[in-house]
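Hey team,

Filing this mostly as a record. A colleague (T.K.) asked me to run one chain through the structure pipeline before their review meeting, and I want the input and output archived in the tracker in case anyone asks later how it was produced. No errors, nothing strange. Just documentation.

Input sequence:
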Amino acid sequence: MARAAARVLIAAGAVALAWSGVIHLRLWSGGYDAIPLIGPLFLVQGIVSLLIAVALVVFRRPVLMGAGALTLAATAGGLLLSAYSGLFGYTESLAVPYATESLYVEFAGAAVLTLAGVLASPAARGRVRRSCAREDGR
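Output structure:
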């Protein structure tokens, strides 16, 4: 049961990573490429998010779940930091295209991948095995 739930969560997390990556690539190609430092970071975020998403689907390793969760949380945190106090000399607005969507996708994806990592961890698999063995009377 935990393994099946982890697979569904991994797939949902990979979708969130890909979605975030596409948002950032669209923004980069739509004008953010001209913003010093922020523009290249949008390009890197888009590419890295897509790569982690593919790796998650193919390998389903807890370290990739952690990397994906951290990437999504850091991306959302960067947007909020930029909107409220500025980041690298640039101040963003939450009223720009994709800002609200990006925050929902990134925070939800980070939570989903964190839960998937917990369910897929060796410790969780060991608890499930011991629990099943007790139910079987072993």
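Quick notes for T.K.: The chain has a mean pLDDT of 90. Residues 33 and 40 are 7 Å apart (CA to CA).
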